[in-house]
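Section 5.1 Outputs to date
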Amino acid sequence: MTTDPDARVALIIEDDADVRQLLVMTLGMSGFTTIEAENGRQGVALVRERRPDLVTLDLNLPDIDGVEVCRQIRPLTDAYVIMITARQDEIDRLIGLEIGADDFVVKPFSPREVGARVNAMFRRPRTTVRSISQPLLDAEAGDRTPTSVTPPAAPEPPEGVLTHGSLTIDTEGRIALLDGVEVPLTRIEFDLLATLVSGPRRVWQRETLLSRIWGDGWVNDQHLVEVHIRNLRKKLGEDTKAPRFIRTVRGVGYRMMPPNAD
């Protein structure tokens, strides 16, 4: 374990001692204090105790597998989670499970690759979740004028809130509401949705989304965008044949449907 009281904390959950040491070295060079767990139960306990900023999580652990560990720790922490798997074909299955991981790395990996992915994630804002429902209610409660023939204008959304039809996106609190109900999005899904809604008439190219959300150097990995968009659509209740929110622009990327199509 490396220690620095001012450093961000990375928890490495990995049963292979050699891989664990490689991650300790890699993350230590990136400025992290590292703590280690050899199995899933120990990892869950350390998440509770140490509140890490980053978790690297091996898929194949000796007691409980990485999928179950991720499910258990996600309600406990807003840390970035990188799943590590030995097989490329596992990635689609993992993302499809919607377990709350932010990224996926396949063994064998290079320290440079892991460092680049971590740096890209930490360039995205990490903010404390807050509810946007109360500010909206407060804004409505502020109007105490008598009933008149002309209805009062709808209150302006609070600063940092985007609206698109029945979608409300709080970019500061990182909350997405659909018809007033919070949608449980992963960090990447939220960033994708907020980006699309921020320019609803724009056609967002896959390369642009990769660069904006994952960071520079990812323009050749467009499959990441497609898989996360697919999961985002599921959570929004989308029918891909008659999209309600996100439209695919063939050969280019994605754009939001007009709000009146909602």
